[in-house]
Design brief:
Blueprint: E1 2-9, E2 23-26, E3 31-35, H1 42-53, E4 70-71, E5 74-75, E6 78-86, H2 90-95, E7 100-102, E8 108-119, E9 128-135, H3 146-152, E10 155-157, H4 163-166, H5 174-181, H6 205-217, H7 220-232, H8 256-260, H9 283-300, E11 306-310, H10 318-332, E12 343-348, H11 351-355, E13 362-366, E14 369-372, H12 382-391, E15 404-408, H13 411-423, E16 433-437, H14 443-447, E17 463-467, H15 495-507, E18 514-518, H16 524-530, H17 534-549, H18 556-575, H19 580-592, H20 598-610, H21 617-623, H22 626-635
Parallel strand pairs: 3-12, 3-13, 10-11, 11-12, 15-16, 15-17, 17-18
Antiparallel strand pairs: 1-2, 1-6, 4-5, 6-8, 7-8, 8-9, 13-14
Helix pairs in contact: 5-9, 13-20, 16-17, 16-19, 17-18, 17-19, 17-20
Length: 673
């Protein structure tokens, strides 16, 4: 038996399907991973399952006024949560026969429908919530009985759980519940200790407790204390003819449950510490121990094998997170007939966990809407899934949590663009934008993750795929070799051929909220040099060229000398009156010839832009190549316009760079003192 579907209307972030989407999520029988930013609705989904199924820890699960969805200023007065459980065994079907629903495919499901009404406070009455739980779709069946309740409880591990406290001894402790449900517990409630053969060790737990109690009671210390109390003190309180005596006992009740409640589970001490010494271990490994213990119960029980776990990464370092994910994957995968498969529903904010998961097991949650990534929901092909499984790592997995995604094809873009956006007052950090370097082979695979197949709703997070045009300007033919066949230079294309090339690049990934921004002329560095960032790129590439010669080890003093020399060379270059294209070609040449590293040049360019000496704000934004302006505009909001009260100018005036005109002190070239 597994949870096949969960629906909810007017529960927390989930609306009635009109103004806000209601929850309607179909689950895998194995692993289900909910990812998304904070307040997206992930915990709401887990809590909806807890409300309708309840949990094995018998915690108090109630609905309150705040659980009813509120839209604008109006709070819903009723809600429902509905869980569909499928794949019941014959024994399970027999136990809940009167509550079953016959599905269209002639299979039987157990549908549990919770309906709740909220009654606001009145003059003489407190606010209250009335609930009723029935079987059948939309709650058309009989009320759910005790037999069903005991069969369908889910196991829940709360976020930031105190695993050590959960495994301590005590009344109704979680460990006692797990021990009581284990397959091997049957018969252990029988007291097989015999007073006629007190030295015979019993086999059952209750018998062992009676055996221990008897022999401890015979110990000279215990016996002497007991006699001292009875003869010298307690006996003094007895009236004539009465007998008043005490006994020192381990357990007053020799039944199984109180015995199990005395057990605790601890990690063995590490290193050279004796195994019997108590030694507290860290929160991380105690959490791993707690999860392992719960999996034992789920594997061996007869009821619903559903584990709800929020943030399993809590207190775990990244490598241990990977181990936990492997454990959850192992227990949730398909197993041979006769073995139990554990269904897992987990929420996470950890890119490390997500990077080691199968993409098809993931569901993105955004503003109360679910977006499964399983085959058939996205535009990913089967080959895309296998490719992405190999190449998504923790740095790329952050795309699943972002409010905007920029996908780039190299480290230079990944290094430079966040700083460039910050300098333009379009901070990636403030807008929740993640930049993902997918390399030169994966751009279109990654782009399709966030694109949906109809009729799935469109994923509303904006995505930009940034790619080079890779058509060489004719002016660079002095150092770029012309191929023996094929097209490489601008002159190899007519206007239609060039437009078709660009459109083909866009068509491979564009769709929904995903756009493809193709460089205006050649590459990122060339286009920046061609637009309004020529001086920045010239100095940055000069620094990178010297760093390459010195093994990428420039001291602070070296950087100052190289920068001063580059600024002097820039003045000479300006005086030569090159066209804008020729100037950009000269600036880019060391990168093309690999005399300088693109990544190191990007690092220096970011450093220069961050100083604010080479333009900032909207003035810098308007100097950028058009494709970068389009990309940033798609992902970020423009900064608020200054008001007249601030005394700042309302608009910055920037003249455009004209391609093909001589360069002296025109727009895009900064005058140096």
């Amino acid at each position: 038996m597994y949870l096949k579907r969960i629906r909810a209307r007017n529960f927390r972030a989930f609306g009635d399907g009109t103004n806000m989407p209601e929850l309607d999520w179909e689950l895998n029988p194995g692993l289900n991973i909910l990812v998304g930013e904070n307040d997206a609705g992930k915990t709401g989904i887990v809590d909806a399952i807890r409300q309708v199924l309840l949990t094995t820890s018998y915690e108090s699960v109630r609905l309150y006024e705040r659980d009813f969805h509120i839209y604008n200023s109006t709070r819903a007065q009723s809600l429902f949560i509905e869980a569909t459980l499928s794949g019941l065994s014959k024994e399970q079907e027999g136990a809940v026969l009167e509550w079953l629903t016959l599905e269209d495919d002639d299979t039987c499901s157990l549908i549990v429908h919770l309906h709740a009404k909220f009654f606001p406070a009145q003059a003489t009455k407190r606010a209250r919530v009335d609930t009723i739980v029935r079987a059948g779709k939309d709650g058309t069946g009989p009320e759910i009985g005790y037999a069903v309740r005991e069969l369908i409880r889910a196991t829940y591990l709360r976020p930031l759980r105190d695993a050590e406290a959960e495994l301590r001894p005590g009344r109704q402790s979680r460990l006692s519940q797990i021990l009581a449900a284990h397959n091997h517990i049957a018969g252990q409630e029988v007291n097989d200790f015999s007073m006629s053969a007190p030295d015979t060790v019993p086999e059952n737990l209750v018998g062992l407790m009676a055996f221990a109690q008897h022999h401890l009671g015979e110990h000279k210390v215990i016996k002497s204390v007991q006699e001292d109390i009875n003869k010298n003190y307690l006996g003094e309180f007895a009236f004539a003819g009465d007998r008043l005596e005490s006994r020192i006992r381990i357990a007053s009740d020799l039944s199984l449950t109180p015995i199990l409640e005395k057990f605790e589970l601890l990690l063995s001490p590490g290193g050279s510490v004796h195994p019997d010494e108590r030694c507290d271990r860290g929160l991380g490994y105690n959490n791993a121990l707690f999860m392992a213990t719960e999996l034992v119960l789920l594997r061996d029980g007869d009821e619903l094998a559903l584990l709800l776990v929020e943030e399993p990464e809590a207190h775990l370092h990244p490598q241990l997170q990977d181990r936990v994910m492997e454990l959850l994957k192992q227990h949730s995968k398909e197993v041979p007939d006769g073995e139990r498969r554990v269904q897992v529903v987990m929420t996470t904010h950890s890119p490390s966990l997500v990077s080691s998961a199968d993409i098809e097991t993931m569901t993105m949650v955004h503003k109360g809407q679910t977006y499964p990534l399983a085959s058939g929901y996205t535009k990913l092909q089967k080959t895309d899934y296998s490719f992405l499984q190999r190449f998504i790592d923790a740095t790329k997995a952050n795309l699943f949590f972002a409010r905007g995604v920029m996908m780039v094809e190299g480290p230079a873009e990944a290094i430079l663009l966040p700083t460039l956006a910050e300098a333009c007052d379009r901070s990636f950090s403030k807008h929740g934008v993640s930049i993902v370097n997918v390399g030169h082979t994966g751009l279109y695979h990654y782009a399709r993750i966030l694109q949906r197949q109809a009729p799935s709703p469109e994923y509303p997070v904006p995505v930009v795929c940034l790619t080079d045009r890779d058509v060489v300007p004719d002016v660079a033919n002095t150092y770029v070799e012309k191929p023996k066949k094929g097209k490489r230079f601008d002159s190899d294309y007519d206007a239609k051929g060039l437009a078709d090339l660009i459109q083909r690049k866009k068509n491979r990934a564009q769709g929904g909220k995903t756009i493809v921004c193709v460089s205006d002329r050649w590459t990122l560095e060339y286009d920046l040099a061609l637009s309004g960032c020529a001086e920045v790129m010239f100095i940055a590439i000069s620094l990178a060229e010297t760093a390459e010669i010195k093994g990428e080890k420039l001291s602070d003093s070296d950087e100052k000398l190289v920068k001063a020399a580059a600024e002097a060379s820039w003045k000479t270059l300006q005086a030569a009156k090159h066209t804008a294209e020729k100037l950009a070609s000269i600036i880019y040449q060391p990168l093309y010839e690999k005399k300088a590293s693109k990544a190191i040049a990007a690092q220096y360019a970011a450093q220069l832009l961050a100083s604010g000496d080479y333009g900032k704000g909207d003035a810098l934004f308007k100097k950028l190549p058009q494709y970068l302006q389009d990309a940033l505009a798609h992902l970020t909001m423009p900064p608020a316009a200054p008001t007249e009260a601030t005394g700042a100018p309302l608009h910055a005036s920037v003249a455009p760079t004209v391609v093909g005109t001589p360069v002296g002190t025109e727009s895009g070239v900064r005058e140096t003192a």
